[in-house]
């Protein structure tokens, strides 16, 4: 771009990475538009609890000038981990909260709200679904919207997650199923309504695992416990099992059978779900996932390096956003800044993807036969 005017920057996706990027840009006086397909900030639940690492997620918040506000909301006690024997729920390992500077927990929704509140009204354009992006010969990029309209920008940042509509402008890669499914459940007001489960889980997270299946439970804010029932199976496991995912009783019955022989206190995590069951197949992008630089467009977060949810994804997305924004406000030119960002982000993501794949194998050990 040769003009001296402010570059026109569009971020597609109002997730943690995209919002972090927008916040750092706005801090430095740069204009930016964030396009989000959801109708409003509260259109859907935002998921469970995240532990923010000092050198990634917390570093990004520091760059965004939000670290103090994060620390006021975070739960240091949420770092606690309890590993239980699946057969008798005996405590096998315990890790308490770290000293100052550890990895405190925060609900994803609270963190997203913190970032949204830090942006000027109108920065996020809600209900603006993007259907695709086309790099143009002059180094700009054209966004296509779901309503058929188009708009050109000097830089389009794809921060739109696993099924990114921007990614095809750079890469033909598509997410693939990992062979692992999480079925999510939840329990409200656990300290009063489910005290036995509250004691079982503790102040942070709990893990029990057997061959091909695991139970992970994490305490969120306001006494909520979120449960992830993890198992290795075909993506359409419910078809072979003859289970209608809309029939909560049938799902519960099947899951209880899958965890037959486990301690009853752990099986209780499969029973009185206040939120019902939500099926979540886990997908990843190929690793390594790289692309040849294309002027006018780049990616961050899951759009760039979708990996298993074992504690790195959100942290890396936020660091990506902060790093890209920093490059844009300190670099000598737009294209040079994006090249510098990609030269750091891509190698970092390859290392993290490898680590995350290994983490998933530890979380849900491979069985000799899959379940279904």
Automatic annotation (TrEMBL):
It is found in: Cytoplasm. Its main location: cytoplasm. It comes from the Bacteria. Its EC number is 1.14.13.-. Pfam families: FAD_binding_3 (PF01494). Its cofactor is FAD. Residues 9-192, 297-348 form the FAD-binding domain. FAD binds at residues 51, 108, 302. It catalyses: a tetracycline + NADPH + O2 + H(+) = an 11a-hydroxytetracycline + NADP(+) + H2O. Keywords: Cytoplasm, FAD, Flavoprotein, Monooxygenase, NADP, Nucleotide-binding, Oxidoreductase. The keyword Amino-acid biosynthesis does not apply. The keyword Ubl conjugation does not apply. NADPH binds at residue 44. It is an enzyme of class 1 (oxidoreductase). Consists of an N-terminal FAD-binding domain with a Rossman fold and a C-terminal substrate-binding domain. Belongs to the aromatic-ring hydroxylase family. TetX subfamily. Monomer. An FAD-requiring monooxygenase active on some tetracycline antibiotic derivatives, which leads to their inactivation. Hydroxylates carbon 11a of tetracycline and some analogs. This is Flavin-dependent monooxygenase. It comes from Kitasatospora nipponensis.
């Amino acid at each position: 771009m040769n003009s001296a005017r402010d570059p026109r920057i569009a971020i597609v996706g109002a997730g943690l990475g995209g919002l972090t990027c927008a916040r750092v840009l706005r801090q430095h006086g740069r204009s930016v538009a964030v396009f989000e397909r959801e109708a409003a900030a509260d259109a859907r639940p935002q998921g469970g609890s995240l532990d923010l690492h000092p050198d990634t997620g917390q570093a990004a918040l520091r760059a965004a000038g939000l670290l103090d506000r994060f620390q006021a909301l975070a739960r240091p006690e949420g770092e606690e981990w309890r590993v239980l024997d699946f057969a008798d729920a005996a405590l096998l390992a315990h890790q308490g909260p770290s000293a100052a500077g550890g990895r405190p927990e925060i609900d994803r929704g609270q963190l997203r709200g913190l970032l949204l509140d830090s942006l000027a009204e109108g920065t996020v354009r809600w209900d603006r679904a993007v259907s695709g992006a086309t790099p143009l010969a002059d180094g700009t990029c054209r966004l296509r919207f779901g309503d058929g309209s188009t708009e050109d920008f000097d830089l389009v940042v794809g921060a739109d997650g696993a099924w990114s509509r921007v990614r095809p402008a750079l890469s033909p890669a598509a997410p693939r199923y990992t062979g692992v499914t999480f079925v999510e459940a939840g329990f409200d007001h656990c300290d009063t309504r489910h005290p036995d489960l509250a004691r079982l889980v503790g102040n942070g997270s709990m893990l029990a695992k057997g061959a091909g299946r695991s139970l992970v439970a994490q305490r969120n804010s306001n006494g909520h416990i979120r449960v992830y029932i993890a198992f290795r199976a075909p993506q359409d496991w419910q078809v072979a099992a003859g289970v209608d995912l809309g029939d909560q009783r049938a799902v519960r019955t099947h899951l209880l059978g899958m965890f037959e022989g486990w301690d009853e206190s752990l099986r209780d995590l499969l029973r009185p779900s206040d939120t019902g069951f939500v099926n979540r197949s886990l997908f990843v992008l190929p690793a390594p996932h790289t692309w040849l630089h294309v002027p006018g467009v780049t990616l961050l977060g899951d759009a760039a390096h979708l990996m298993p949810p074992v504690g790195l994804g959100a942290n890396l997305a936020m660091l990506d956003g902060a790093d890209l924004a920093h490059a844009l406000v300190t670099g000598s030119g737009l294209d040079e800044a994006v090249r510098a960002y990609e030269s750091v982000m891509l190698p970092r993501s390859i290392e993290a993807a490898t680590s995350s794949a290994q983490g998933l194998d530890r979380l849900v050990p491979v069985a000799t036969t899959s379940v279904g």
